[in-house]
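Quick one: structure tokens for this chain, please?
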Amino acid sequence: MRIPVATYRLQFTPDFGFPQAKAIVDYLDQLGIADIYASPIFKSRSGSQHGYDVVDQNQINPELGGREEFDALIEELQERGMGWLQDIVPNHMAYDGQNQYLMDVLEHGTESQYADHFDIEWEHSYEDIQGKVLAPMLGDFYDRCLERGEIQLSYGSQGLKVNYYGLHFPVRVESYAAFLTHEISWLRRQMGRQHTDYIKLVGILNTVKNTFPSLKGRERRDQAQFVKHLLWELYESSDEIKAFIDQNIEAFNGQPGKPQSFDSLDKLLLEQFYRLSFWKVGAEELNYRRFFTVNELICLKVDIPKVFDQTHTLIEELVKTKKINGLRIDHIDGLYDPLGYLQRLYERTNGVYTVVEKS
């Protein structure tokens, strides 16, 4: 076991990544530094200045230079006999559109393969968030944000999205029915009932309406991806369908000053597996465990073996290949079973040097 003697902490940011760190290795070596103590280096929310808002634990943050630059930095350190102590974040991830695990949960609810990865109380005492995840991200009360046009619907290659400034949320496939039904008579007049693309669109609509209520688990998720793919193909290949979808987006997004113009969007939002709300509501109605009082950090159930495995694959690899010589565990006091976590980590990393914060 390598035990650090003299460490030097590096706070990585998009402006100070692996190439910048490599440039000061000689200076640190001359100072007598034995090991770099690194802030989180795994993919975090875009622009993160600290790295604790992780969105993917199994990818080296590309904003810091990615895997290639990281390996080059490690090679430079090892040539000088220097090591690497890595800060890791097992307790939480960013509540953000870049967190694909969480977005899968917000799109598919309890049918998501990641539904049990996050510490969510699906059967909350408040009826209006039962089976949903509270999303307390709004800067004002929901109805005010809606009627000011701050919450907007968009469409792209990944399907329909709900947007609030820089935040983006998926739309469950069942909600495509109301969206595609809106003003479909206009499209029928433009294309005719027998047009091949119109028939394809109606087929998609019928699938959404009649098939999805009976689908579960992986079958549901696969079918959702298939439907979204077909719809995007039509959008790209048919001028009429593109115009139809673009017009519906505009209609659903309403007009500020005309409250009733937001009724369709409001109804769509109420159907989702999440409920947008004023951030202050989190103090009373929160149904997920967060990091302290930070709504934007949602906690993981890392005590479940499959969640541990999914979030520690790259960490294990870097330890076993000796690119990382030690671990510093961030906020272990937030875990359900800190001792159990440390025992599992010890087994998976062959007892690498480990220190913990707030034990």
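The mean pLDDT is 95.
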